Amino acid sequence: MKASRSRNLIRITAAILIGIVLFTSASCGLPKDPGKNLAEKEEKNLRIVNLFSPMEKTDPDAENVARSALDQTVIFAEETLGIKVEYITYTAENHQDKTYDDVALDRAHNNMDDIYLLNPDVIHILGREDRLMDLSNLDSAKNLRDVVKTANVVNGKLVAIPQEVVAYGLFVNVDMFDRYNLELPETPEEFLECCRVFQENGIETPVGANRWWLETFVLAMAYADLYNGGNTAAEIEALNNATAKYSDYMRPGFEFLQELIDKGYIDAEKAYVSEAIEGEGPDFLAQKTPIVIAYWGAANAETAYGSPDFHMQVIGFPSSRGQMPVIPMTGLAVGVGAEHVQDAMLTLNAMVSDQALQIYAETNKVISPSKNVEVDCIPALRPLNDRIQENVYVLGSNANMRLEQWGNVCLVVRQLLSGATVDECMEEFDRLQEESLQDSSPFFP
Q: What would the pLDDT profile of 76-89 be if each residue is shown by its tens digit?
């Protein structure tokens, strides 16, 4: 059961309508319009940078805060540099379409854009292929938190810089927990007990899930000790040289998910075909489902969970060390073969400068990648934020690991959702680990 990615080129048609009205003189003897000449000259001198990013499907009457935050940093870069940023966007309509990751890989492999907003697995792939520029020498890179470098330094190069440190957690309806005298769960056993009580009280499916984010349970359980036990470097080295097995780390999380599926606490068939938030969001907001998985920014966004009609809190995933946030790392990157590579580097540097990140963080109320930028989070996020501030979390992406985590774990979880056994999933991790040993990158001697 090979976890494969489609590499076929996706054709995305962007229609750009430009209305140009040319006024010509009725007499050949009249001089040409100097304003027209100036406009033509300015058009020729315009510096363009192409940015590829997702455009989330949203309620047209609701404000997309995350998108607005990105837009404001783009405007800041344009005004600072005199550069025009053109958007190219893509979002899959359903589970049968190519994913954003697939399309981003295709476009990057064909040098179709200048700047890309990338998920962790794509950063890992393109970084190993040396298709992304090294951003280490940008002025903005000097201000980054160490966690960003851990995730996005590939082969000794900083290949992507995020505009936020994305933290995933469990979004819980506290009112429903209080109704049944339940404490918010800390451990896998406590989580299962909460699900049992909910189901016995008529809540058919206690956990709303989609095809993307169930790996957060696995990662929290697999790496709670690795990242918080004081022996991180040695454990990663053992995984990289295969004296330790990823499957041994992953098994408890997969067995936990299988139990959730077997007991009906998760609807595996629905999760397998559901898009993030769109599949489980309506039931959560309607208080039919007490628990969903989402990222930090969803707690602030009106298009997600920004205004529920109940008391909501965001907590970490159950683990042996209590509630555990999971932090993967997205990032903006510049293609090595970008047509406007120098202007793209300048634009990205402006978009992730402290000034721009302050705008982004204040708009989206997120954890900034810059150690110089801090904003207060909303009350719902404080339980998750408190753990992160205590340096208690698990990384969902780590460039120091031979085996890419975020994408691979997601794909193997999807095999579980489609009927694979836990043992078959562990065999897949063993195969992936063996494959990773063939990596001839100088970063992994």
A: 999 999 999 998 88
Task: For residues 154-169, give the mean pLDDT.
Answer: 92
With cut-offs at 50, 70 and 90, classify the pLDDT of residue 108: very high
Regarding pTM above 0.85, the answer is no
Model confidence at 389, pLDDT cuts 50, 70, 90, reads confident
pLDDT digits (tens, 9 = 90+) for 293-313: 999 988 988 778 988 999 999
The C-alpha angle with vertex 429 and arms to 188 and 413, in degrees rounded to 5, equals 50
